[in-house]
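anyone seen this seq b4? input:
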Amino acid sequence: MEKGLKFTSEMVVEERHLAKSVGSGDLPVLGTPVMMSLMENAAMNAVSASLAEGESTVGSYIEASHIRPTALGDTVCATATLTAVEGRKLTFRVEAADSKGNIGEGSHVRYIINIEKFLAKMSGKG
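predicted toks r here
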């Protein structure tokens, strides 16, 4: 896994993405949890092709600002860039923007996991 891997995820803001719909607020603007989810999606996709068979990544930490509202119907892009690799720990710089410019930025940590072992932990077998 090499630093510098990058991916951009894109979405159009729909009613289901609004703060008033996801429960993070009561206004008809993009909800912060949705923006952060798009950032996580970009990070996941940035490294997915570099993983071994049977591996995936899971998010463990995200810190991000959400500095400007985004309206229903606007397009949001989130870009994640892999900035550090420490064994199974992957750290990303994440940024989000809409048609008017930057709406948020921060950092995100994901861990490489073995899917079978990870899922076994839920059943008490791992």
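The beta strands are 6-12, 55-66, 75-86, 89-98, 101-114. The mean pLDDT is 96. kinda curious what u guys think
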